Amino acid sequence: MCEVEGDYNGLECNQKIPVPTLNRKCMKCKEGAAVLIIRVNDAFCRACFKEYFIHKFRAMLGKNRVIFPQEKVLLAVSGGAASCSMLSQVQEGLSREAPKKLRFMPGIIYIDDGGACGRSAEERQRSNALLKSIFTETGFPYFIVSLEQVFSLPASVLVPGTSDPDPSNLSYKQAVDQYVKEKQTLTEENVASAVAQLSIGDSVYSHKHKLALERLFSSLKTLTAKEDMLQTLRQHLILHIARENGYSKVMMGDSCSRLAVRLLSNIALGRGAALASDTGFSDPRYGDVVIVRPMRDYSSKEIAFYSRMFNVPSVFISGLDTKTHDKASIQRLTESFVTNLQSDFPSTVSTIYRTSEKLHTVMPPQSQSAEPASKCLLCLCTLDTKEDKASAFHATLVSEQLSQIKLQDLSLDAPGQSAEQCCTEGQGCGPGGCCSSNRLSSHQDLKTLLCYSCRLTIKDMVATNSLPPYIITEAEKRQKRFSLGFRSGEFAGQSSTPTPWSFNQLLVLLAVWAGAKSCWKMKSASSKSWSAEGTMKCSKISQ
Fold first, then answer.
1. How many domains does the chain have?
2. Where does it live in the cell (predicted)?
């Protein structure tokens, strides 16, 4: 600050701030030489950093107590440093040298999305072979599934399962005590049976499904919609494999830096209502399968240091946003913004991350008679599209309807081409053509089943008929259920009969129609005037 009295030396402002060097002791043991600095003044030696990294993973699992002993957990590995570090931590926790071993039964899944990202068959085979060698060394059962298999998924994937608690496991402590009592030493027979249970899957796909996947992603006009659709399809495929093989938990390798980017990008994409599920430690939106994120306390810098120092094997696999500019998509722009801000202000990611920890999903009071909340067709989150006249969402819908009316008026004035010529030549229609009218109606049909963010993704599609069959089938079921007035629980499992209210309403409509028809016959028979007897009959019938 400027002072009225006192000496002022202008050279002091130009003096450089001393940069911390590595010639210092470890902040934890105070003995070993520091080999890295995580944050501003957190210097660690090699041994203390490894202990710090392992303890962070164990503390995250122990603090939440979501995974019970002997529970089957599926590890979603993408080949990157974060997911491979998570795999290394699980492998470390199950080793003989671990002081407190992990008690769950892990499995590995890798989704080969090369068909959506434009990778060649040789590149996909090369990356799959590298990952297969990594998975084989762990001794865990693994699944290498191609993204093309979403076109053979059943429609039941989009139906949330029931998460009824097991009455035998009343608490986490009782489950641990029961596991300790039933624990047995591994014999040769146990090892042989464990090896026999390894369900090893390869990335197999048909040429027809490959073309269908390419058609689906070519129908999406923006990279933002492509990344959102890719994430949705990957989640559906992981969910199906987990249910099919009895896994009740799925571990994701999302780091703190990744979740900070996702928090801001999801707000920009209109997913504010699902932030707690998308960034929290546990995500119970699927019911019977819970998504957990044990790596959410690690920054990308910590993961990179650990992978480099302890030789954690990983495979670089190009994605949709590889070698794209910063403004290619909303997700890419947000990542560039957070990364550049983090380089100048080191507390940026941690501040955004701590904000996400305070978010919680509003759960309405549940009762046995209450109907379950409607779920989005794609992301399976609770629908956030309740039309309130005093909301920004309602104003957006009104503006969209007015713009569509204006476009329809302009299309009536413009000279249009015949439907036969359009369909035979296979060329694009104008705003009033046959293809555009069909496409608009299909978009409108799906909108009622989607949340706000998924509506924007579908809106960027050229045609919705390129969606996988299980999505279209489930959409038709929900539309029929909505049009017939069924309760969601009746369609899901037990009964397919109409509700008493809709049946009584049908009887009333039939009675009114019969009464009006008989009165019309009486009036046409007597051309002069209404008779007292006919009027009395009509009143009795209407009653």
1. 3
2. Cytoplasm
> Has residue 397 been placed in a domain?
no
494: left (phi over 0), alpha (psi -120 to 50) or beta: alpha
C-alpha 196/C-alpha 461 separation (Å) is 45
Share of residues in the chain with pLDDT > 90 (%): 46
Q: What is the pLDDT of residues 377-406, one digit of tens each?
A: 999 998 877 666 656 666 666 776 677 676
SS3 394: helix
**How far is Cα 38 from Cα 302, in angstroms, rounded to an integer?**
7
**Dihedral-angle region of residue 462 (phi above 0 means left; psi in -120 to 50 means alpha; beta otherwise):** alpha
Q: Judge contact between 455 and 397, C-beta under 8 A.
A: no
Segment holding 424, helix H or strand E:
helix 419-425
Residue 455 and residue 447 in contact, taking contact as beta carbons nearer than 8 Å? yes
Are 264 and 116 contained in the same domain? yes
The H-assigned helical ranges of 221-329 are 223-244, 256-268, 275-279, 300-309
Please report, for the domain that includes residue 24, its CATH number.
Answer: 3.30.40
Write the pLDDT tens digit of every residue in 401-437.
677 676 555 555 555 444 444 444 444 444 444 444 3
Neighbours of 299 (CB within 10 A): 20
Of 453, 451, 411, which is closest to residue 434 (Cα–Cα)? 411
Which residues lie closer than 8 Å to 329 by C-beta, 6 or more apart? 222, 223, 224, 226, 227, 321
How far lies 439's CA from each of 114, 212, 228, 421, 435, in Å? 28, 18, 21, 17, 6
Residue range(s) defining the domain that contains residue 115: 68-165+197-357
- In this prediction the pTM is 0.75
Residues 453, 271 contacting (CB under 8 angstroms): yes
Alpha carbon distance 105, 90 (integer Å): 10
Angstrom distance (rounded) from CA 333 to CA 1: 38
148-164 in b/e form (b: 16+ CB < 10 A) is bbbbebebebbbbeeee
Contacts of 16 (CB under 8 A, 6+ apart): none
| Residues 124 and 112 sit within 8 Å (Cβ to Cβ) | yes
**Tokens, residue 481:** 């259920």
Strands 249-251 and 72-76: parallel
DSSP state of 431: T
